[in-house]
Amino acid sequence: MSFLQRLQTKTLPQKRKLEEVQKVRHKSFPSDPYAVRLLKGKCFLHFASDDRFIDDMGQVHERRPTEKLRLTYFSGGCAYFAVDFWPKLFAARAKDIELNMKFFDNDVCHDGEGIKVFIELDFKSVQTKDTMIGLTQTVRTTVAKFFPAHEDSSCWLLVSDSKLKRGTMVNGCHIVFRSLIINACKGHQLCTSVDAALNAAFGLRGVVDDCYKAEKTFLRPIYAHKMVICHNCEGSDHMRAVCDICQGRGRHGHASVYKPHALLTTEGVETDMDTHLDRDLVATVQSTSIVARAPMTEGYSIPKDEPIYMAPTLRRNKTNHVPGSSVMIKSQQPVTETSTLNAIEAHIRAYHLWYSNVQISTVHRSSTNIFVNVKGVGQNHCGIANRVHSSNRIYFRIHKNRFMEQMCHNDTCKAAKSKTKQHPIDSDLRVKLADMVVKKTGPEAHLEFINKI
Prior knowledge:
Layout: H1 3-8, H2 14-28, H3 33-38, E1 43-46, E2 53-54, E3 60-61, E4 69-73, E5 78-81, H4 86-98, E6 105-110, E7 115-122, H5 129-144, E8 155-160, E9 163-165, E10 168-170, E11 172-182, H6 184-202, E12 208-209, E13 216-219, E14 227-229, E15 251-253, E16 258-265, E17 268-270, H7 273-279, H8 281-288, E18 314-315, E19 328-329, E20 333-334, H9 338-351, E21 359-365, E22 369-375, E23 381-382, E24 387-388, E25 394-399, E26 403-408, H10 411-415, E27 422-424, H11 427-441, H12 443-452
Helix pairs in contact: 4-8, 5-6, 7-8, 11-12
C-alpha cells in the first residue's frame, strides 16, 4: 500500500497521519539529489524534523558539527561545511542550472569572514527591467561614495519573476557587487543610505530589505527556488496529510527565481547575459553569490553628508567601521538545561493546537525575558495574523514573572502584537526560571522572585 493510500484510509488516526507526514518530510530531504551530492564532500547535513546530522560518509551524529552553517534549504534542513568547500558547491549548483534541476538553496555568510555588498529591493508592484537598471545606477553611485579609493564598483542586477503577493502582482531584484566586501555594521549603513537615496531620487521608500541585522546574512542565489504554502491544502495539518500536490509537506516549490539581467561596470550596462552563462557558468554562479572569497575591502569611510545609522540589534563599538572587524550582538545567554527546555516546550505545545508538534530550536534569555525559536510542524502558524505565513517563522517570548506570548518577525504582525494571547506559566516553570535569575543576580533576587509567585 502506497503512502497516499495509507493516509486516505479512514481507520488511520489523525495523530498517526501527522507522524506519517513528518516521516515524508524527514525522508524527502536526504533523498534530494542536490543534497546527496553534497554528502560526497566534507559536509554535514541537518534534518529539518529532528536534531541529527549526517556527515560525508553517511554516518549519523547527534552533536552539532564544528563547521559553520553555510547553507539552508527552503525545502527544509541546512548544511555545515568548511569555507574551502564553496567552489565545489558552486560547481554542483552550476551543473543543476545547466540540467534545469530544481534546488532550494539559501546562502549563509558570517560577519567575521566578510560579506559581499548586496542590496535587496522588494517592490510593491511590478517594475520594468529598464526601471530597475535606473535604480541600480543610483544604488551603485551611492555605494561608491563609501569607497572613494576603490575603482571597481561593478555589480550584478538579478531580477525575480513576477509573483502574486496578497492579491497584487509584484517582483524584486538583488544588486550584488562583485568585489566589495564588508561586515554587517557597514552593510546596515549602506542599506539605510541607499533607501534614503532611492526615496530622494524616485520617491521610493521602504523598498530596501536590510539583511545585515545580525552576525549571519542570508541571500537566495540565482535560479534557486523558494517554498511557498501549498495552494491546495493551504498547509493545514489535516488537509495536507492527503494532498497529492505537496505530498504532505504543506509547501511546494515556487516558480519565481532570480536571474541575471544586467552587469553594470564603468564601461556601461551589459545586458547580454547569455555570454556569461555560456562562457563560464561556474564563475557567474560564484560572482553573483554573496559569498566572499577575498579579504575585507579597504578604504571604507562614511561621507560627511551621510548620517550614521546603527541597527537596533547591533551594538556599536570602536571597531565597527575598521576593516576586518566583527559585529557586536546584544548580550543574550543561551539556555541549555534539559529540564528547563522540556518544561518550556511543554508550555508551548499547550499554548494552541497549532503548536502541539513543534520542537524547540534555540532558547536565549535576557535579564527579564526568554526568547524561544521553534521548528517543525506549526512553525509558520501565526496567531497574530490568524494565518500561515509563507516564510516568516513565529517565536515565543516568556516573561520570567508571569506569562508567555507568541511573537512574529513579520512587520505587520509586529505592529499588531497586542492581539497576541498571553498564556500564564505555572509555578514549576517559574521556579526553574527563577533559578536562572539566581545564577546572574544572586540569592536576593531569587527570594524576591519566589515571593511574587
